[in-house]
Design brief:
95 residues; alpha+beta; three-stranded antiparallel sheet; 3 helices; 5 strands; 43% helix; elongated
Length: 95
């Protein structure tokens, strides 16, 4: 699902809000999430899941093409842990 499809779906479900208003709301939510993660905060959406940054240490890797050793710097990566109700809903849909 893309951002534009999400905006369309929310606009369809909420009468009285224009597409532009819904777009502003969605962008505000996503910007708030990005800002919180940049500050090192954890985002918890009950019933959906948690977002947080994890630190990956620097390491030495190997270029598979040449076999040459390459230094990979330390970095932060986004980690998502699905909430139990969301996990159960996904698994019951596949049965």
């Amino acid at each position: 699902m893309t951002r534009s499809v999400l905006i369309e779906k929310v606009t369809e479900r909420l009468e009285g809000l224009t597409k532009k208003q819904v777009e502003t709301i969605i962008n505000t939510i996503f910007d708030g999430m990005k800002d919180a993660l940049a500050r090192g905060e954890k985002i918890e959406i009950r019933g959906f899941g948690n977002f947080r940054l994890k630190q990956r240490n620097a390491k030495t890797a190997r270029n598979p093409r040449t076999g040459e050793k390459v230094q990979v710097p330390a970095k932060q990566v986004l980690h998502f842990k699905v909430g139990k109700p969301f996990h159960n809903a996904l698994n019951s849909a596949n049965e």
